[in-house]
Amino acid sequence: MMRIISFLLVSQVLLVSAELMATDFPQADISNGVIRADFFLPDPDHGYYRGTRFDWSGVISSLKYKGHEYFGQWFEHYDPKIHDAIMGPVEEYRTNEAGLGYDEAKTGSTFIRIGVGVVRKPEEQTYQIFNTYDIVDPGRWSVRKGPDWIEFTHDLRDGSGYAYVYTKKVQLVENKPELVLEHTLRNTGRRLIETAQYNHNFFVIDHQPTGPDFVVKFPFEVRARQDLKGVARTSGAQLEYSRQMEKDESVFTELEGFGAGAQDYDFRIENQKVGAGVRIRGDRPVTKLNFWCMRTTLCPEPFIELKLGPGEASRWIIHYEFYTLPTPSAH
Question: What is the Cα–Cα distance from 160 to 193, expressed in whole angstroms?
Fold first, then answer.
């Protein structure tokens, strides 16, 4: 009976997802003959995602390799302005756990969400991460693409002295099951840009329910700071699941054990049942590592730090290597 309910829930999410894909959002796709990736494009009027939490560029609605799906809809309810109604390896920028310029902005004035735009600060005591703020100026987006790459550029300028040009290029490596996210953030304003950036990594490998078929691997002895609620456990350099997660159940924890070098920005997610895995590698040291999961997605969230004076630029890269592994039936 539980298998039937699980199948119906997954089928419902897939049906809703298929209906949304058919909606007239700006879209594009790229392929290198090994991987195909589909994108929703940034658009302040008609874009699939118009929330103010996550960077609008690089929203991957589907990525397929050897018949396996790695991204897609993991949430049940969709609205373009829901803060996390978004898919793929999506990213967020936070300054002091808020937006750029939020702390000094007065009620009614503006602050910046990098990769989103200039937004208005309402009357509130603290920044609300899950709120969608009113966008005053979405900046200027431009998109270029080739057969196996796509590049997004966001040019933003605020009257308070903040300004930047942000570029994200998504490249599929020739003849390899590898995707590369190449970022460049250039400070074109007169004020210091200091921010933390992280990737949420909303994986939905073959829409398999989060549970014992999954394992998350790290290059260090990993420890959870918060209670994993009997759902999961850390064991050596792995995070494993004790049972399958239920609908509407979620687990969050900060993870410890990583060092000061970029070599620890190296994680693997594998599903033994379907025989699909992905390796995520970054070229910057991890400054904080969160982990969040629910029944329909599991997400290592590595943070890096950025500090750019006027005229300075920063570049960083994340690699995604997709692979297969033997399944129990193969033995």
Answer: 12
CA distance 106 to 60: 35
Contacts 24+ apart (CB under 8 A), 326-330: 326/275, 327/272, 327/273, 327/274, 327/275, 328/272, 328/273, 330/275
* Segment 104-115 mean pLDDT: 97
Contact 278, 269 (CB under 8 A): yes
pLDDT score for 330: 59
Q: Identify residue 271 by its one-letter amino acid code.
A: N
pTM score? 0.92
Residue 328 — very low, low, confident or very high, per pLDDT cuts 50/70/90? confident
User: How far apart are alpha carbons 84 and 309 in whole angstroms?
Assistant: 31
Please give the order of strands across the beta sheet that includes 297-308.
91-94, 193-199, 297-308, 288-294, 250-256, 223-224
Maximum Cα interatomic distance, the chain, rounded to a whole number of Å: 63
| Contact status, residue 132 vs residue 116, Cβ threshold 8 Å | no
Amino acid sitting at position 78: Y
- Joined tokens for residue 85: 């109604």
pLDDT of residue 24: 87
What is the model's pLDDT at position 176? 98
User: If you search the block for the tokens 């550029």, which residue do you land on?
Assistant: 153
**What was the pLDDT predicted at 298?**
97
